[in-house]
Specification:
heterodimer, A: alpha+beta, Immunoglobulin-like, six-stranded antiparallel sheet, four-stranded mixed sheet, 3 helices, 10 strands, 17% helix, B: mainly beta, Maltoporin, Chain A, 22-stranded antiparallel β-barrel, five-stranded mixed sheet, 7% helix, globular
Chain lengths: 184, 804
């Protein structure tokens, strides 16, 4: 009986040794390059007779400068979504959005200010000719100040809603930018 | 002439022990002898009356009859080659029915955990803690968790309908061990939305050990363990098999499972099994649950030789599935969640389809298992198990600009384990087992997902040793005990965002882990070690012929799992960011269980209260809001508290007649976070199921009506948070209610089984099952999809079981 226990113990130790030998350390894992990341939203406003105005919402700061627009004016608004996680390789996400226009929708929600918007001259259209609003025309009304919430909606359930809830889908971008409309 | 003389002699010889001339000697004793583990009838067991020559042998269906017995007290011996014999004293004053359950001898090849006696002791009326082959077949096209919820004290934590995790006394995942064919299942068990990668159809019996840990397999499961056992081995020449076919209306799908076993008297045996399942989108009473289809394909194979005292076995199994996740449950931010909560139906309802799109999960689990055992003499046996498991898990999300076939999570977990044990027994009274268990686990998280790793690359090692024993001086008393010590080591390589690493103060607590910085990420190499101790003891006592009682105490210690330590990422189904914590310590649970069981008579049942105190109970709780480009996200972080969990499981059965009986199962669980003085989240509310069953006299058919009731969970922590929504005149805060549990519900199932052919020989049956027959519309607190959709509606299932 003693012999059996000894042989048993020997076998056990041999097995454990084999296991520990095979547990060599692992290779250093590769760093993951996060895809489909959006870090920055850039809004560019232009109107005749004035210099262009650009505001940037950046993840790092989680805010942006205020948009200042003139009352009762028309602005050409270009929105750009960027991935700036790698400063040496800034990616423009607009290309993807335009390519997959059916699955994307830009939507602006205003509070405290009265602004209407429509399709811009160089806007992207989806397969049903719905504007994505990558490029849009904003018409401002009376002077006031408030917030514009900028949405990028992924796979909306409809492309022709007037509220965020109406579009359904998943929110890829939702940032609040302060906006002020001043008298001319 | 000579022949008939011989016959008469034999007859006289057999009858001479029977005092036929006595007036009180015309009683009949009859009953059945079954296997304790799987409830299958035992053929050829001998029932003897001690001190006489009279005996009977069981038929193929396990029944026996002993006639012409005299009134008075007699001692019975029930013997069967592969099993421990039972001795029982019975007083006879009427025709009596006595049913026995035999336990397999330790030298049968089938895996027997040494605590099996305790299993029976703990759960005296083993009925409520075990599923037999027949019950398993009913759940042939469902999951392990679905089958187990028919037992009191078990719930299932679900993600939709097809992804279900068994939950024992409110605990799941790493707190519940699944032991299949004698080895611990090693998959990504930490995830609440990860169903165990196991095919129920490959097993013949399922046992539930509540609270008690089978220390042989680990001392880290305070919830309990689930033991799945294969078909009992018969060492004679035979070939048998079974095929089960299912068709169901909800999901318009079905399954087929088939197994075949060949055994031979020289000890060789071979076994193969195959399961295929396919379902399309399921339906709630009012709408299609889009993208909830699933498919599964499993295969297993076994080859071995047993010469009772010596043997080997080789096992291979492969499990593969793909499961769709309700499309509407994929959300981008908490405003999307709020929108989903406001609606009473999912935001996307598409026509029925078999297609499974993202979001979906794919799992593949493969297992190779080698067993060798050798019994040196009556007293000593040693056994080796080597096991290699590979688990790959892929999760696909709705993504932008990434090919559809690129998963968002891609994990490969490889586990090697070795278990060596030495079993020793002295007479019938003492048994002991000592063993060593070593495990090496390697997790690889593929970086090509383009998503930050949720779980990092790591190597986990575990080295443990256990000593368990039992003392059984008589059939009416049983004592068992055990201790186990484990050392668990983690060697991890993980990238943190530098900002996260610093904001958690890890740069000052763990500077030794830092390797190097790459941009805004830092590579760290945490090395963590835990020493866990587990112990258990229990006694069970037969108080009388009708009553048993048992008491047990279990100390278990569990080191934090990969998710609790390292989890780092966004969950799309609840819009939460989840973080592990490197500072967590091991969790220690002290659990006391008591049971009182009535095993005889028209009224049978068991009541099982339990109480456990868990120090350093690890749970996840909301900590803060993090501002992202998708708005503010709640950040949840793992932390520890002290918890108190108690509850009662009850099973009652009443036989009105031999044909008609009534059963009720009920359980209540109460769990409290003592430090924060809050109820613990996701604890099953009070629930009960009651059924009435009628079986035709010759068991040609039976019909069962089952009613389920689940109460509202009134004890829940308030984890609501606010989201700012934009209104005409500015931002306003709106509460997102993710805490309030859904209302109580009831549902009704009806089962009709028809037994065909020769019932004694083959078990061919046809079943019609009607689940949720009244189209009850409800949501369940333990389903993570409850925010988005109702549970499934009526399902009519036809099942054909054919044994050969």
């Amino acid at each position: 009986m003693d012999n059996t226990i000894i042989s048993y113990t020997k076998n056990t130790l041999l097995f454990l040794f084999l296991i520990s030998v095979s547990s060599c350390s692992k290779d250093t894992p590769e760093v993951v390059n996060e895809e489909e990341l959006i870090t920055t939203v850039v809004l560019n406003f232009s109107t005749q007779g004035e210099p262009d105005q650009t505001v940037r919402w950046e993840t790092e700061a989680a805010n942006s400068a205020e948009i200042i627009l003139k009352a009762n004016a028309e602005y050409d608004v270009q929105i750009t979504f960027l991935d700036e996680s790698d400063p040496n390789d800034i990616e423009n996400i607009n290309e993807e959005i335009i390519e997959e226009a059916d699955e994307h929708q830009v939507f602006y929600e205003f509070s405290g200010v009265s602004v209407t918007y429509g399709q811009g001259s160089s806007d992207a259209l989806d397969s049903n000719q719905n504007p994505v609003y990558i490029n849009s025309i904003w018409n401002t009304n009376a002077a006031n100040s408030g917030i514009v919430r900028v949405f990028l909606i992924h796979e909306p359930t409809t492309k022709s809603a007037t509220t965020r809830d109406g579009f359904g889908g998943e929110t890829d971008v939702s940032v609040d930018i302060p906006i002020r409309i001043i008298e001319e | 002439m000579i022949k008939s003389f011989f016959k008469i002699t034999v007859l006289v010889f057999f009858l001479k022990g029977f005092p036929l001339w006595s007036q009180n000697c015309d009683f009949i004793l009859s009953g059945t002898v079954k296997d304790l583990h799987d409830g299958s009838p035992i053929y050829g067991a001998i029932i003897r009356i001690e001190g006489t020559d009279s005996f009977a042998q069981t038929q193929e269906n396990g029944t026996y009859v002993l006639k012409a017995l005299c009134a008075g007290s007699v001692v019975f011996l029930i013997e069967y080659a592969e099993c421990n014999s039972i001795r029982k004293k019975v007083s006879i004053n009427s025709n009596t029915t006595l049913n026995f359950e035999l336990e397999h001898h330790i030298n049968a090849l089938e895996e027997i955990i040494i605590s099996d006696n305790r299993l029976k002791g703990l759960n005296g009326n083993a009925k409520e803690s075990r599923l037999n082959a027949d019950q398993i077949s009913r759940f042939s096209n469902q999951s392990l968790a679905d089958a187990l919820t028919t037992l009191a004290g078990v719930s299932s934590l679900k993600t939709g309908n097809s992804i279900a995790k068994p939950m024992i006394h409110g605990m799941y995942g790493s707190r519940v061990g699944i032991i299949a064919n004698g080895i611990r299942l090693r998959d990504q068990e930490w995830g609440p939305d990860h169903a165990p990668n196991i095919d129920l159809n490959a097993f013949q019996s399922v046992q539930l050990v509540k609270g008690a840990t089978a220390l042989k397999y680990g001392g880290d499961t305070p919830g309990g363990i689930i033991v799945l056992s294969p078909h009992r081995l018969i060492l004679r020449d035979s070939l048998f098999g079974q095929t089960i076919m299912n068709a169901a209306t909800n999901g318009w799908g079905g399954s087929i499972t088939s197994k075949l076993m060949k055994t031979s008297s020289n000890g060789y045996y071979i076994n193969g099994q195959l399961t295929a399942k396919r379902f399309g989108d399921l339906s709630s009473p009012q709408y299609v649950l889009s993208n909830t289809g699933m498919k599964e394909m499993n295969i297993s194979f076994k080859l071995g030789r047993s010469k009772i005292s010596k043997g080997w076995e080789l096992n291979y199994s492969r499990f593969q599935n793909e499961t769709g996740i309700l499309r509407s449950a994929h959300i981008g931010n908490i405003q999307d969640l709020l929108r989903a909560l406001k609606e009473d139906k999912p935001l996307r309802i598409e026509p029925f389809t078999y297609r499974i799109n993202a979001p979906k999960q794919q799992g593949l689990h493969q297992n190779i298992h080698l067993i060798y055992f050798n019994q040196f003499n009556d007293k000593l046996k040693w056994k080796w198990d080597y096991n290699y498991q590979v688990n790959t898990r892929k999760e696909f999300d709705i993504r932008r600009g990434v090919p559809l076939d690129v998963p968002a999570i891609d994990l490969k977990l490889q586990t090697h384990s070795v278990l060596g044990s030495l079993q020793w027994k002295k007479g019938f009274n003492w048994e002991m087992e000592w063993g060593i268990n070593a495990m090496l686990q390697d997790n690889y998280s593929d970086p090509n997902t383009g998503v930050k790793r949720l779980i990092p690359d790591y190597i986990k090692t575990q080295l443990g040793s256990y000593l368990v024993g039992s003392y059984k001086p008589s059939n009416s008393f049983h004592w068992d005990w055990g201790v186990r010590l484990d050392r668990v080591g983690w060697d991890v390589q993980k990238y943190y965002n530098v900002s996260d690493w610093k904001s958690r103060n890890y740069n000052t607590i763990f500077p030794q882990f830092e390797v190097n910085n790459i941009g805004n990420q830092i590579l760290v190499n945490p090395a963590l070690n835990f020493l866990n101790f587990a112990a258990q003891t229990g006694i069970s006592i037969e108080l009388s012929e009708q009553f048993n009682t048992s008491f047990s105490y279990v100390l278990s210690q569990r080191s934090p799992n990969a998710s609790e330590l390292f989890s780092d990422g966004l969950h799309h189904s609840l819009a939460t960011i989840e973080f592990g914590s490197l500072t967590l310590d091991k969790e220690s649970s002290n659990k006391f269980l008591f049971s009182l069981t009535k095993t005889q008579g028209k009224l049978k049942g068991a009541i099982e209260p339990y109480f456990s105190k868990i120090n350093n109970y690890i749970f996840i709780a909301p900590k803060a809001l993090q501002q992202t480009i998708r708005g503010a996200f709640p950040v949840w972080q793992y932390e520890a508290t002290d918890a108190l969990v108690w509850g009662v499981d009850t099973v009652l059965g009443f036989d009105f007649t031999d044909q008609l009986n009534f059963d009720i199962n009920a359980s209540y669980t109460h769990a409290q976070d003592m430090k924060n003085e809050l109820p613990i989240i996701n604890i099953p509310p009070f629930n009960s199921s009651q059924s009435i069953q009628y079986s035709s006299p010759k068991k040609r058919f039976d019909i069962k009506v089952m009613h389920h009731f689940t109460a509202t969970q009134n004890r829940f922590p308030d984890l609501n948070f606010n989201v700012t929504t934009l209104q005409e005149d500015g931002l306003i805060e709106q509460e997102v209610d993710v805490s309030t549990p859904p209302s109580a519900y009831q549902k009704l199932d009806v089962f009709f089984s028809l037994y065909l052919g020769n019932i004694e020989k083959s078990k061919t049956s046809l079943r019609f099952m009607f689940y949720n027959i009244t189209q009850s519309k409800y949501r369940d607190y333990l389903n993570r999809m409850r925010f988005y959709a109702d549970e499934i509606g009526r399902n009519v299932q036809v099942q054909f079981v054919f044994s050969y």
